[in-house]
Design brief:
Number of strands: 12
Number of helices: 10
Helix content: 40-55%
Shape: elongated
Radius of gyration: 23 Å
Distance between the termini: 63 Å
Strand order of the largest sheet: 4-1-5-6-7
């Protein structure tokens, strides 16, 4: 009996741990269109071009409705077992990192080039961004709210869950309460979509993208056969095959100077059981090329899910 009891407890613990490991980390942020309508946008220099992105800091500091809505969504998701990161805390961490980045330059004197949104994703380390937008409708003494909630994979920027609708007219005055009434009938289906996405990641790996490029100063190219018994591009493709979940990826383009790998499925954890990400995974290829073929390369990141490896020098 003791043996059966011990076996049951071990099985229960394994199931519990497995279910806990499968929960994604998320963060609620206001949607881009809501920020634009409310005037919470900022401009930044994107490689010589001016781009506009949401100004989350200004929105959080100036709009009390936003704070109430974020708190209510956090509460509803937390009750259903989904851990969330707090936007306000992530913004404070971002300010601290910004002070460090201001002192950071390359060997040639260049500054770090990264969009504010990419910085926030990196700082928060959330798997999913929950983008919320809403409109309050006035119907005599009653109000209703029309909302749109989107779950965006922070690695691929793809929507993986969605819900929208209009709540019943209510005498409630607070926007957060109106939102809760409107979202309540949709939240469980929304969470099911999120869980299905994370189940897929757990079983089939996280989807990322990898680009291989070459410096113009490099004497070789990707068709060179000086590094083994095949072209360098084939050797790189073999490494990607061996280091993805079930060898799943799509080589969408390849020339003598570049390779584009899309829908690359990397494991959530490495062989030691430690969490991995796009940078750590791509750095494995960088080290492999250096240790095996003495090829120097520079690894660069765009957001959480896009890595670029430029061969020839640092």
């Amino acid at each position: 009996m003791k043996r059966y009891l011990l076996l049951f407890l071990m099985l229960f613990s394994a199931i519990f741990a497995f279910s806990q490991a499968k929960k994604p980390t998320m963060m609620v942020v206001p949607a881009d269109d809501w920020c634009n309508q409310q005037g919470y946008m900022q401009e930044f220099d994107n490689q010589g071009k001016v781009s506009k992105v949401p100004d989350y800091k200004k929105a959080v500091q100036e709009n009390p409705d936003l704070n109430g809505v974020i708190a209510k969504i956090n509460e509803m998701m937390q009750e259903r077992g989904f851990p969330l990161k707090m936007l306000e805390a992530a913004l404070k961490s971002l300010e601290s990192e910004a002070a460090e980045d201001a002192m950071l330059t390359s060997k040639g004197g260049a500054e770090v080039n990264e969009s504010p949104i990419d910085k926030l994703k990196k700082t928060a380390k959330a798997d999913i961004l929950l983008q919320i937008s809403w409109t309050v409708n006035q119907q005599g003494p009653k109000k209703s709210i029309t909302f749109r909630l989107q779950g965006i994979d922070a690695y691929t920027d793809k929507q993986v869950a969605g819900a929208s609708g209009t709540g019943n007219p209510s005498m409630a005055a607070e926007t957060a309460l109106l939102l809760e009434e409107a979202v309540l009938s949709h939240i469980d289906n929304f969470n099911s979509q999120l869980q299905a996405h994370f189940d897929d990641m757990f079983a089939n790996g996280r989807e990322v993208a990898l680009r291989i490029k070459t410096w113009s100063s490099w004497e070789y190219d990707l068709e060179s056969e000086d590094f083994g018994d095949d072209e360098l591009s084939t050797l790189i493709e073999k490494w990607v095959t061996d280091n993805t979940v079930q060898g799943r990826f799509n080589l969408s383009d390849a020339t003598e100077n570049m390779m584009v790998f899309e829908q690359v499925r990397i494991p959530l954890y490495d062989a030691a059981g430690k969490a991995t990400d796009t940078r750590k995974w791509a750095n494995g290829l960088r080290k492999y090329l250096k240790d095996t073929y003495q090829i120097e390369s520079k690894l660069m990141m765009k957001g959480l899910g896009q890595a670029t490896l430029v061969l020839g020098e640092k």
